[in-house]
Amino acid sequence: MESERAWGNLTIAIVRDKRAPNLLLSLIAENGKAKPWQEEADRAFVTCPRAWFDEEQRNYNRLFDERARTDYDVSARRIQPAVAEANSRFIENAVRDKEQLLKNHLIFACELLIAPARAHLKMAHAQASTDFVIVACALERHRLAGGNYPASLDALAPRYLARVPHDLINGQPLHYERTADGSYLLSSVGWNEVNDQGEPAFLTSGRGTEIREGDWVWCYPDRP
Fold first, then answer.
1. What DSSP string describes 26-55?
2. Domain layout of the chain by residue ranges
3. Whole-prediction pTM value?
4. CATH class of the domain defined by 121-220
């Protein structure tokens, strides 16, 4: 996320210093075609004073702090989907009013901060998947040493893990249970923040899971 912020600040600086007067237009044009207001804005950038860009940059960084960083806590290893979705809706609503974008110096902020919830969803799912792998490796080590999987994840620490990862979404222990066939089910409540009893949601095509809905699940069969 800090790299994203740095890229945004660099973009504003390049346009401000007239090194690439059509840069923003190339970033925001849809299907290679700019809308009239976008063309007008890009022409205006050529004559804008430095102070105008400075105000845009301040607001970009302010909105970044208020709407792109308030839904996760790295030290606590938590992410809040509801906050992420609310932040995205706020930005989407701001983009709809073009006059307010100009008046409030939010042109760059609303073009560079596009739907942060999508990025945070992918970030959270990737980290949850990594946590599943870490726990799954510890479970397998436990099985190899003792002949079966433990009754609870608490048995993994501190011998196999210094600390068992918690659910990134609700901060509670990951859901874990042994199954009748000798394997286990490991899951997180997922982005919808609802315990779906270990049931994932699937795309209508059936070719993958819909990570916005259902639980995030790791299911691994027992092996001889």
1. HHH-BTTB--HHHHHHHHHHTT--HHHHHH
2. 2-114, 121-220
3. 0.80
4. alpha beta
